[in-house]
C-alpha cells in the first residue's frame, strides 16, 4: 500500500493522537482537562494539514472561518523566527478557546491546551529536534 503525503500526515498524527488519548485516559486528570489537551493537539493538527492549506487558497473559501484561522496562525507565526517562540505563539488560539470554555464550565485546567500544542510541535518537528540534540552531543 502506497500512501501519499496527505495520508502519511493523517496516519502519523492520528496515531499520535490515539497514543496521547490512551495515555491520558488512564491517568488521574479530569475529563475536561483531557479535552483541553486534545483541543490543543487537534488545533495544531488542523492548522498544519497540507491538504487544507491548498484547499483554502480557492476563491470560494475567501470568507470562511477556517481560512480566518489559518490566516491568524500565519499572522502569529510571522512575529518570530525563533522556533520556541513561534510554537508558543501558535499555541495562543487554543489557549484562548480553552479559556472561553473554562469560563462557561468552570471545570478543568484550561492552560492544559498548551501541553497538547507542545506535544504536536514535538512530533511535527521531530527531525529538527533530533538534529539539534545530535549536534549538541557532538559538540560536547
Number of helices: 8
Classification by helices and strands: mainly alpha
Cα radius of gyration in angstroms: 17 Å
Flag low-confidence runs: none
Strand content: under 5%
Shape assignment: globular
Largest sheet: none
Helix content: over 70%
Oligomer: single chain
Mean of residue pLDDT values: 79
The SSE string, one letter per element, is HHHHHHHH
State the distance separating the first and last CA atoms. Answer: 43 Å
Give a brief rundown of this model:
The protein is mainly alpha-helical. The protein has helices at residues 5-25, 31-47, 50-55, 65-77, 83-90, 92-105, 113-124, 126-139. Helix content is 75%, strand content 0%.
Output the keywords.
140 residues, mainly alpha, 75% helix
Question: What features would you describe in this structure?
Answer:
It is a single chain. The protein has 140 residues and is mainly alpha-helical. It has eight helices and no strands. It has helices spanning 5-25, 31-47, 50-55, 65-77, 83-90, 92-105, 113-124, 126-139. Helix 1 (5-25) runs antiparallel to helix 2, helix 2 (31-47) runs antiparallel to helix 6 (92-105) and helix 2 packs parallel to helix 7 (113-124). The radius of gyration is 17 Å and the shape is globular. The mean pLDDT is 79.
Secondary structure: elements and pairs:
Blueprint: H1 5-25, H2 31-47, H3 50-55, H4 65-77, H5 83-90, H6 92-105, H7 113-124, H8 126-139
